[in-house]
Amino acid sequence: MADKEKKRNAVNYRLKGIARLGGACFNDGETDVRVLDIHHKNGGGNKHRALYGNDWDLYYLEISILPDKELHRDYQVLCANCHRVKHAEDVVTGLAMAEDDDLPSLFD
Questions:
Q1: Over the stretch 53-66, which tens digit does the pLDDT of each residue have?
Q2: pTM
Q3: How far apart (Å, rounded) are the C-alpha atoms in residues 74 and 44?
């Protein structure tokens, strides 16, 4: 498959996933698809994407065809700003929950 076709497929599958998840940011209602991300609610996004390497079309295909129950359980749409804030909050929450003895290891 040509690179151009793979990119087009990735965009189309991404848009399908966003549409199935409501087509708007869960937090603020933003609908501009240029700034919408599919967020892994329970973390693990980096590991999940790593399974596909550069095959973004396959990554987004998997998300776009998940059964509704799994899709809505594991993913949500966030705009770029809300997505960044969510991950920043996760870091702060992780630091707040860590024991004092654990803090140095978080920064190694």
A1: 878 999 999 999 99
A2: 0.81
A3: 10
Say if CB 33 and CB 79 are below 8 A apart.
no
Count CA atoms closer than 13 A to 39's CA, side-chain side.
23
Q: State how far the Cα of 55 lies from the Cα of 22, in Å rounded to an integer.
A: 25
Task: Over range 31-58, report the average pLDDT.
Answer: 92
DSSP string for the chain: --HHHHHHHHHHHHHHHHHHTTSS-TTT----GGGEEEEETTS-HHHHHHTTTT-HHHHHHHHHTS-HHHHHHHEEEEEHHHHHHHHHHHHHHHHHHS-GGGHHHHT-
CA angle, corner 79, sides to 75 and 81, nearest 5? 125
Does the pLDDT of residue 107 top 70, yes or no?
A: no
Here the tokens at position 83 are 């997505």
